[in-house]
Amino acid sequence: MRIYLDHNATTPVRDEVVDAMADVLRNGFGNPSSVYEEGAYARARLEAARAQIASLLGADASEIRFTSGATEANNTLLLGLLEPGDHVVTTAIEHPSVLAPLELLEAKGVGVTRVPPDADGCVAAGDVLDAIGPSTKLVSVIWANNETGALQPVEAIAERARSRGVLVHSDATQGVGKLVIDLSRVPLDYLSTSAHKLGGPKGAGALFVRDGRDVPAYLLGGGQEKGKRGGTENVAGLVGFGVACALAEAELDDRLARYASLRDRLWQGLREAVGGLRWNGDPKRTLVNTLNVEFEGVAGEVLVQALDLEGVAVSAGAACHSGSIDPSKVLTAMGRSPEEARASLRLSVGHGLDEAAIDEAVALFARLVPRVRERGNA
Ligand SMILES: Cc1ncc(COP(=O)(O)O)c(C=O)c1O
Q1: Atom 16 in ligand 1: which residue has the minimum CA distance?
Q2: Over the stretch 70-99, which tens digit does the pLDDT of each residue have?
């Protein structure tokens, strides 16, 4: 049995999600835009999913725009909203699906301020707010960083930026299902989310667009999503997303306690069994399931491979760059040297793990880390 400790890269798809998706693939194949019964059935399943996603977020169903995932949600928002001459305040620790469109926009004359994090990977709300100027149209801040799990002060930023008339977006892809996110309380204008980070399938996600705000369509086509996102909907994927959200809503309190206990067991176990560790972050300001840890003197990618051969999946640097040995930009932005960043692994827990699996993983680390250390950071 493999031990999967990379739930921030993607999560195992929940059985309930698979069942709902299989059912809709078999029995709901109609095109949701068709007016006859098959279409109406598919449309009803989609709308039920929209309501489930909205409910988890504390939003109204009319505020949920379906996408193919968080990358599309982030691109839709940034490329649709920002024009030459506008200014955007963001952070140095965003996901590439925010960083890359902003680089493109910068080359076209959009001003971009990237606020750096502190040594624990968190930006200060004051630094973000101080960067707002007269041409600032948008503030975009990741809710929880994918590599470190570092939580950003999104609620404080949203309240204060909104009172200054600036629009606020958060990429909450890692937070949804692992944090209480209640958009009836937090005055965000836009939020991005993705099904595969909370037990749903890949290729389904959503952009929350608060009532009264607008974002032009990014994909043009057949007028789906009230003309805001062309393309026949991924009905099965979105139905799966809806079920994953309903499970998250029902289980959230248990999940928070369970993930924190497994993650803390992992950290305590590693601390006792392996010396020379450093937590890259502040446990009190970190997502409950994430532990980014430096194993001093280790070549991270070598340890990842050694663990993989023994049945444990973890990631070095950003998951999206697995296989690359470029030091993590997030860790270097936190002030880590390239060597320290390279010696760091991201361990993230989630559904399907238990104490025995954590203990087994710890025992493997205890066996493998000294061996990898002997080989040096080369
Ligand atoms: C914070 C964050 N934003 C965006 C994405 C991209 O999501 P998707 O895979 O749905 O495009 C990810 C996934 O790695 C992520 O962790």
Answers
A1: 146
A2: 999 999 999 999 999 999 999 999 999 999
Neighbours of 151 (CB within 10 A): 24
How far apart are alpha carbons 273 and 69 in whole angstroms? 39
DSSP string, 54-78: HHHHT--GGGEEEESSHHHHHHHHH
Kindly give the distance from the C-alpha atom of residue 367 to the centroid of ligand 1, in angstroms, as a whole number. Answer: 33
Secondary structure in 3-state letters for 128-146? HHHCCCCCEEEEECCCECC
CATH topology of domain 15-248: Aspartate Aminotransferase; domain 2 (3.40.640)
Tokens of 63: 């505020």
pTM of the full structure: 0.96
CATH of 3-11+252-375, one of 3.20.20.140, 3.20.20.70, 3.90.1150.10, 3.30.70.920: 3.90.1150.10
Show me where the domains of the chain are located. 3-11+252-375, 15-248
Q: Is the CB of 373 under 6 A from ligand 1?
A: no
